[in-house]
Structures are given as structure tokens and as C-alpha cells.
Amino acid sequence: MEPLSEGTSKVRLRHDYHAATDDPADLAWIDQAVDRNSHVELAALKDTAEAAASDLLFSFDDTLEIDGSARDVYDFINEARLWRERLPHVARVDLTEDTPGLQVLEMDTRTQDGSTHTTRSIRVCLPHRKIVYKQVQVPKLMTLHTGHWLFEDRPGGGVTATSRHTVRINEDTITEVLGASADVAAARAFVRKALSTNSLATLGHAKNYAESR
Questions:
Q1: Burial class of residue 64, CB neighbours in 10 A (0-12, 13-18, 19+)
Q2: Which end of the chain is more exposed for a tag (fewer CB within 10 A), N or C?
Q3: Three-class secondary structure assignment of 141-197
Q4: How many whole angstroms separate alpha carbon 63 and alpha carbon 28?
């Protein structure tokens, strides 16, 4: 990583390798694969780094104070297979957990206009403190969505539950989704409102669940 100026950098990706055989064709295949993959990786790094320096990438939290135990709030978020019955904005859930604590969650979520969108997430569940996830299938308006559910015991009792989002706006789809006059600021506001509405609704139901235990 070489700084060129205050706002620009040069990144070099170097490889050392040898073929397992003496066949020149094997070495040529490795050369081609490494070269192809390196260009893809560097392009993705450039894209992500430049987005981080723009308004396209942003993070925010939604927090709720709950007079219950962190264990019960965690259980509500962890048991996402029950969300269709528990959360009005969830239309469909498909959750697999072949290894305890490692989940693949696919669900259809209802929006305020009555339409639905499908997301698919990989979740790592750390009882009873945190659930982290990355959406590998995101709505059109985003190219990235990662998040945390955080559960922190309060001094004297109760729990502070936080939903944390990091989002990258898909600049290419803004006008398609929001209309010809929409810009990045409008997309940020739209995404934040949609995610916060669902997060706070989920935390609200988790609060009711934990406080009734």
C-alpha cells in the first residue's frame, strides 16, 4: 500500500508460487488464474475503498431499552425460524443451521407499500451477546448490507438491545427504484427509514417477549 497523495494510493498485489509438476501447461494455467483473480480482487478493493470515501457507504444504530434478560432478547433474534409467526413484516422464512451458531437465513420482508423483497444472510450467533450477519442477497438499492444485533446488560438490570447496520447504496439503481429525480441522499434516507422501521419493529416484539417472561 503506497500513498500517492492525501487522497490517493497505489496497491500492489504480488505472488510467489511454483507448479506442483514440471509441465509448462500447469504453470501457464496458474499464471492465468492468478492474473485473472488478481485483477478481480484489485478492482473490488478499489470499488469498496472509493465507496467508503463517498456518501454511498454509511452506518447507523437503532437502540431499545428492555426490562428483561439479554438471554431472552437474544433468543428472540436467534430463533428467526419463528419470525413469520412473530413479526408482521416477515412474509416467509427459511433458516438452516447445520452447525450450531452458524445460520443461513433467507426471508421475504414486506415493505410499507405492500410489496416484498427477498434477502439471504449468513449469520454468526454468539450467545447471548451478539449476532453478526452479512446479506449475500440484497435489495436492488444496495450493494452491501452487514449488521450486528448487540445485547448489553444494564447496570441494575435490564438490557440495551442495538441493531447496527452498515450499508452501501447501489448508485446505478437509484432512479430505477426511487424515480428520475432521486439522488444519493434520497436513497440513503429511504434505506435508513426502511431498515430502521423493521429493526425497531423486531426489537419491539423482542421487548414484549422478554418482558413477559
A1: middle
A2: N
A3: CEEEEEEEEEEEECCCCCEEEEEEEEEEECHHHHHHHHCCCCCHHHHHHHHHHHHHH
A4: 54
Contact 174, 187 (CB under 8 A): yes
Could you give the CA distance from residue 54 to residue 4 in angstroms, rounded to a whole number?
A: 19
- The Cα–Cα gap between 213 and 99 comes to 28
At residue 168, φ and ψ (nearest 5 deg) are -120, 125
pTM for the model stands at: 0.80
Alpha-carbon Rg for the chain in angstroms: 22
Q: Do the Cβ atoms of 4 and 10 come closer than 8 Å?
A: yes
